[in-house]
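Open question from group meeting: does this chain pack into something compact, or does most of it stay loose? Before anyone orders reagents, we agreed to write out a predicted structure and look at it together. Recording both the input and the output here so the notebook holds the full record.
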Amino acid sequence: MTSSPPKRALAILWVNDMFFSYLKRHYKIILLLTLFVIVFALIFSLYDLETEAVIYAGALCLFLGLIALALGFRSYCKKHAMLEELKCSIELELAGLPEPSGLIEADYQELLHLLYDKNLRTISETDGARRDMEDYYTLWAHQIKTPIAAMRLLLAENEDANRLPLAELFKIEQYVDMVLQYVRLGCESSDLLLERCDLDSIIRACLRKYARSFSLKKLSFSFTETNLTVLTDEKWLSFVIEQLFSNSLKYTPSGKISIYAEGERLFIKDTGIGIRPEDLPRVCEKGYTGVCGRADKRSTGIGLYLCKSILSRLGHSLEIISAVGEGTTVIIGLQRESITFE
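Structure tokens returned:
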């Protein structure tokens, strides 16, 4: 009962808006007809016709004019409703347009069809080019893993002497993985596999992978077990955590990296150079590197963008707290948020 008055009020407002829009569209004709009525009334008065006859003729003209106005307004509303319904299916087809009431409307509809056909061709060409690019980079990423694996085997023969080359090779592997994840993220169908995962096992696997890098930079790390089981995709969440480890290693010359949880939030904290306040709101934007990234010359502005996009797709959240010279804390909210399956 309480929702009826607002609905009636909205309906009245809609009718008023439509009516004033209709009057605005036909105001020239209405003014012209009004002028005609005034001219005829003046002429009749000059010939000393009876007032009753003049009033009767004027009332009759007004009545016929109102009928014509009402019929025109009804047709106007009907056409508007058809166009509103067409908005829902305009991406699929351009059928269902109301019959044009004149040459100008027919010209407009012809322009719409031309633009629609051109847009479809453009979308088709763009999709084809994107698929070709995705196929190329996917093939490139898989093929380049073969020489990387061969180089790792050669360097591993004298691991102590080749610690630095192995570390650089590890970075190359991470960049190749980033290319793959970037391509997969843009695919129409992503390989999400949501299941209950042991968060500590995921973190330990990431730490083992980066153990050599921690050792080379002489950074200590603290890992407090979370004892959390989360509904997520293990592969994608692992990529996010590894990327955050990579950022912490890159921008922490000395000190410590800590991993712990509070409730259903995972914290990755470092004692690095930090992020400037003016850069903080934009660090997750695609291609944005900020002052520190430009000074480092190696930042791509893709890592945090991928992290944010992946976590959003998984239904998780990402928050970054940082101060220049004090370090950065990245918080992954593992609580379930809205997630859309296609």
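Observations to bring back to the group:
Residues 103-156 form the longest helix (54 residues).
The mean pLDDT is 81.
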